[in-house]
Specification:
Strand content: 5-15%
Number of strands: 14
Oligomer: single chain
Distance between the termini: 44 Å
Helix content: 55-70%
Structural class: alpha+beta
Number of helices: 20
Largest sheet: 8 strands, mixed
Length: about 600
C-alpha cells in the first residue's frame, strides 16, 4: 500500500504563480511570508504528513475511535502524533501572534492543511474545528474569554468544537432547543443535546472547548433567538489550571461509513446539574457568530475535496504503474503491460490529476483573496476581494467535495476488483470523501446560498466581474503558441459563454420563480466550479508556456500544459450541458406529483 507524497512542486507553482504569494507577503502583517520561508514550511509539513500522519491513516480507519463510559480512546498512535503536531507548532500556523500564533497568511495555511487532509482525513478534522473556534473567539469573544482560552487553543493544548445541530433540527437551526439559563455570577447553565459533533470527545488534548448554540429564556423564536456559549469540558480556575469536570459528556459516538478514526459525538449538556457556559458576544447573535466558524470550516472542508482528489489519484497512479494486465491495445502476441499504458486507464488518471490541480488552484486563489480582504490597506480592494471570496466559498466547498467523491470513485475503478478490497486503501478514500459533501451544509445548501445570497441579492455583479476576468485571458491565449493553448482557448471561451447565459438566467428568474431557480442551483454550482477551475488551468498553461519559451527545461511545465488541455477537452466541455440543465431543466424537476414517487 503506497503512502502519500505531498505534491510540493505543484503547490509551490500555484502559490507563487497563480495565487500571488509575493503580493500577499506585501500585505501588512504578512511580510515574513517570503518565498524561502514558505518553501521551508511546505517541506517540513510534507515530512510530517508523509512520515507521521499517512502511516496512521489506514490502521486508524481499521481500529477506529472507541467509546466507553462517556470517554473516547483514539486509535493507536493518534495521541502521540497530535502531541508532536502541537509541539511542532502546526496548530499555531495561521493564528494571531497576539495569542502565540505564527500569523502566516491563509494562503500558506491552506497548502499545509491540504497535506494534513490528504495524509490523514480523520486526524485533520481536529485542528480544523479548533481553528474555527479560535477565529470565532478572536472576532466575537470578550477580552476575558480570549485571555482564558485562546493561548492554550492556539498552542494545541486544548482543542475546540462546533455544536450546532440537534436530533430534531438537522440543518434547520431555527429548530434548536438547547436552553441556557442565566446565573447570578454571569454564567449560564446549558441543558440539551447536540449531535454530529466532530471530536466532541477524545483523549489527545487535556481540555475540549465547545462552542454551543442555545436559547436564553427571553429569546425570540427562530434563528434570531440563538446565542453562542463557550462550554469547556473542564472548568478553568483563576490561575489558568484545570478545575472541575463540567456537566458536558459524550453519551455515544456514531458508527459511520468512513472517517472511522474521527469521533463523531452525541453530546449531552446538563444531564445532571447543568453544564456551565459563558456567553460569547451578545445574546441572540449566536448564529451570526457561528457563521464565522462555519465559513472558515466550509473553506477547510473544500480543501478536503482537493486533498482526496490528490490522494486517490496518487494511489490509483501507483497501482496502475505496478498492475500488469493484458497486452498493449492493438498489439497481438506482445507482452503483458502495466495498466497505465491502456488508454481508458490513462483517461481516468488524467481526469483525477486534472481535477486535483484545478481544485487546488481555485482554492489557493480564494485563500489569497481572503488575505487581501482582511489585510489590504485599500478599502475598495478589500471589498472587491471579500465579494470574490463570498461568491467562491460555496464553490470551493461544494464543487471540490463533489469532485473528491467522483475522483475517489474513479480511483476504485482504476483498481478494478482490488479497489473493492479494503487492503488496497482505495475504498477508504471513497468512504471518507462522502462526508465532505455533507459537512457544513450539503451541496444543495451551498448551491442555494450561491444563487441566492451570493448572486441574486447583488444582481450577479461579482459573477460578472469573474466572467470578465476569465474573458480577459482570451487575448493572451490567442497570442500563445501551440495547439494545446489554442484548444484550451476554444473550450474556455465556450464554457464561459455558457456560464454567463446560466448566470443571467438565474439572476433574472430568482425573484419571479425561486423554485425554478433552485432546481438548477446544484448544476450551476458545478458549472461555476468547472469553469473557475478551467480559468486557473488556462492561466497555469499560459505561465508554463512562457517559461518553456524562455528556455526553462523543467518537465513540470509541459506536463502542466497537457493536463490543462485534458481538462479543457474532458471537463470544460461539460459546461454547455450544465447550463442547459440550469435554464431548461426546472420543469422536469417539479412536474411529477408527490404521490407518483
Amino acid at each position: 500500500m503506497s503512502e502519500y507524497i505531498a505534491p510540493v512542486r505543484d503547490m509551490q507553482f500555484v502559490l507563487k504563480e497563480l495565487a500571488g504569494l509575493e503580493q500577499v507577503a506585501q500585505l501588512p502583517g504578512y511580510e515574513e511570508a517570503t518565498p524561502d520561508l514558505v518553501d521551508a514550511v511546505l517541506e517540513e509539513a510534507a515530512k510530517f504528513a508523509e512520515g507521521i500522519l499517512s502511516p496512521l491513516n489506514w490502521p486508524g480507519d481499521q481500529e477506529g475511535a472507541r467509546w466507553h463510559e462517556k470517554a473516547v480512546t483514539m486509535p493507536a498512535g493518534f495521541k502521540e502524533a497530535y502531541k508532536l503536531f502541537a509541539d511542532s507548532g502546526w496548530t499555531a500556523l495561521a493564528a494571531e501572534t497576539e495569542w502565540g500564533g505564527q500569523g502566516l497568511p491563509k494562503l500558506v495555511s491552506a497548502a499545509v492543511s491540504e497535506m494534513w487532509k490528504a495524509a490523514n482525513h480523520s486526524f485533520s478534522l481536529c485542528p480544523l474545528l479548533t481553528a474555527g473556534a479560535i477565529e470565532a473567539l478572536v472576532l466575537t469573544g470578550s477580552e476575558e474569554l480570549k485571555a482564558i482560552y485562546l493561548e492554550k487553543m492556539v498552542s494545541g493544548q486544548w482543542t475546540g468544537t462546533m455544536n450546532l445541530t440537534e436530533p430534531s433540527a438537522g440543518s434547520d437551526l431555527a429548530a434548536v432547543r438547547t436552553r441556557a439559563e442565566p446565573q447570578a455570577d454571569g454564567s449560564y447553565l446549558i441543558f440539551g443535546q447536540k449531535i454530529f459533533i466532530t471530536y466532541g470527545e477524545h483523549d489527545m488534548a487535556e481540555n475540549i472547548i465547545h462552542l454551543v448554540l442555545a436559547r436564553t429564556p427571553t429569546a425570540p423564536e427562530g434563528v434570531k433567538g440563538i446565542s453562542l456559549f463557550v462550554v469547556p469540558k473542564f472548568l478553568v480556575n483563576d490561575d489558568g489550571s484545570l478545575g472541575a469536570r463540567n456537566d458536558a459528556y459524550c453519551v455515544s459516538i456514531e458508527h459511520k461509513l468512513g472517517i472511522h478514526a474521527s469521533p463523531t459525538a452525541i453530546m449531552a449538556f446538563g444531564d445532571h446539574s447543568g453544564a456551565i457556559g459563558y456567553l460569547v458576544g451578545e445574546e441572540n447573535r449566536g448564529l451570526e457568530y457561528m457563521f464565522i466558524m462555519m465559513n472558515a470550516a466550509r473553506f477547510g472542508v473544500g480543501l478536503e475535496g482537493v486533498a482526496v482528489c490528490e490522494r486517490a489519484y496518487q494511489r490509483a497512479r501507483d497501482y496502475a504503474r505496478d498492475r500488469i494486465q493484458c497486452t498493449d491495445i492493438g498489439v497481438r502476441g506482445g507482452p503483458k503491460v502495466p495498466i497505465i499504458q491502456h488508454p481508458d486507464v490513462r483517461r481516468m488518471l488524467m481526469t483525477m490529476k486534472s481535477h486535483a490541480e484545478a481544485a487546488r488552484a481555485l482554492a489557493y486563489v480564494v485563500a489569497a483573496a481572503h488575505d487581501a480582504a482582511i489585510r489590504h490597506p485599500d478599502a475598495t480592494t478589500r471589498q472587491r476581494n471579500q465579494a470574490f471570496v463570498d461568491l467562491m466559498i460555496p464553490v470551493v466547498k461544494g464543487w471540490s467535495t463533489e469532485s473528491g467523491v467522483t475522483m475517489a470513485s474513479i480511483g476504485v475503478q482504476v483498481h478494478g476488483g482490488m479497489g473493492y478490497v479494503e487492503e488496497t486503501g482505495a475504498a477508504q478514500h471513497l468512504r471518507d470523501a462522502q462526508i465532505s459533501t455533507i459537512y457544513e451544509g450539503t451541496t444543495g445548501i451551498q448551491a442555494n446560498d450561491l444563487i441566492g445570497r451570493k448572486m441574486a441579492r447583488e444582481g450577479g455583479a461579482t459573477l460578472k466581474t469573474v466572467i470578465a476576468a476569465i474573458r480577459a485571458l482570451d487575448a493572451e491565449l490567442a497570442a500563445s503558441t501551440g495547439a494545446h493553448l489554442a484548444a484550451i482557448r476554444r473550450r474556455l471561451s465556450a464554457a464561459v459563454d455558457a456560464l454567463a447565459v446560466a448566470g443571467d438566467w438565474l439572476v433574472a428568474n430568482y425573484g419571479r420563480d425561486v423554485r425554478a431557480a433552485s432546481a438548477g442551483a446544484v448544476p450551476f454550482l458545478k458549472l461555476l466550479g468547472i469553469v473557475a477551475g478551467g480559468w486557473q488551468m488556462a492561466r497555469a498553461a499560459l505561465i508554463a508556456r512562457a517559461n518553456i519559451d524562455a528556455g526553462d527545461s523543467d518537465p513540470f511545465y509541459p506536463a502542466k500544459i497537457i493536463t490543462a488541455r485534458f481538462y479543457a477537452d474532458h471537463v470544460l466541455s461539460a459546461a454547455a450541458g450544465l447550463a442547459s440543465s440550469v435554464t431548461e431543466g426546472a420543469e422536469g424537476v417539479m412536474a411529477l406529483p408527490e404521490d407518483m414517487f
